Amino acid sequence: MSKILQFLLLALCSGGAAAQSYPAKPINFVLPFPPGTPDMAARVYAESVSASIGQRIVVANVGGGGGVQAALQVKQAAPDGYTMFGGSSGAMALLKAVRSDLPYDSEKDFLPVTSLFSMPTFVTAHTATPFTSMVELIAYAKKNPGKLTFGSQGVASPGHFQGAMLTGAAGIDLVHIPYKGGIAQIVDMVAQRVDIGFNTWSATREYVRAGKLRYLAVTADARRNEEPGVPTLAELGIRGVEHDTWIALFVPARTPDAVVSRLNQEFVRASTAPEVVKRLNAEGFLIRTGTPEQLRRLLASDSEILRAAARKFGIKAD
């Protein structure tokens, strides 16, 4: 037997042994957002998977740059399966549509494992506005071009993209008001200082229940169980605003296939666990897991959609 063949066989056996013993120590799970609702959902997944694999999953919130610092930390980690990234659509797809100086390539520096969940967006307005439905909003906006405002979490944020996409899809003129975060935008919408917003259910439901805000439509591809009376934009004939924020699992490039497969199996299994389903549904999350290839296609598709929107509407990062 040649030395080259012996080396290849040894490497193969070593890799197989490593995959069988994985995980042998705690796993770091890096999230690109501060503690809050998305953080809660990721931690619910982590708890379920940790119980299944018999190792702790240590969740770390790494803020900064809209997810840049978290992504960079994972990119630079050893590709051994002990550092995972809860990559958001913002950090993985949106930022590269508006920035040319990202210190990472989301499609080359990471391997996709599985989608985890998305956060459907509701077109939200104060109940005192002169419209009570999406159809009425569009009619009002066409009669009063440039009068209505929409708030977002900031320049080049998901809400900015969705508002711009709505203006294009519906043929209306809305004035963009960027805020420093989603909470500030919602507070001003409740105070009637901005007309509409693109918000998650968990962030606005209490205001809707109190009669201060109302939902006009949801950007998801189907009506949501938590608000079955709210139509989708697509069923109203408004297409091209279906982009929602999602969170998915990635690992550093060159992580062994066997490790990626194990993580995929564990997180997909967790997505059907009764406690996970119960807790995520209670906060309005849309559970969505699948294969690494499905996540790769989602990332590529969203990246192209957002690049096209950024060019069309002139959206650039600050």
Keywords, please?
318 residues; alpha/beta; D-Maltodextrin-Binding Protein, domain 2; 2 domains; 11 strands; 19% strand; globular
Question: Explain this structure to me?
Answer:
- With 318 residues, the chain is α/β, with parallel strands linked by helices.
- It has two domains: 19-119 and 245-313, Bordetella uptake gene, domain 1 (D-Maltodextrin-Binding Protein, domain 2, 3-Layer(aba) Sandwich), CATH 3.40.190.150; 121-236, D-Maltodextrin-Binding Protein, domain 2.
- Helix content is 44%, strand content 19%.
- The strands form two sheets. A six-stranded mixed sheet has the order 2-1-3-10-4-11, sandwiched between helices. It has a five-stranded mixed sheet with strand order 7-6-8-5-9, with helices on both faces.
- α2 (37-53) packs across α9.
- The radius of gyration is 21 Å and the shape is globular.
Task: Write a compact overview of the structure shown.
The chain is an alpha/beta fold. Helices cover 44% and strands 19% of the residues.
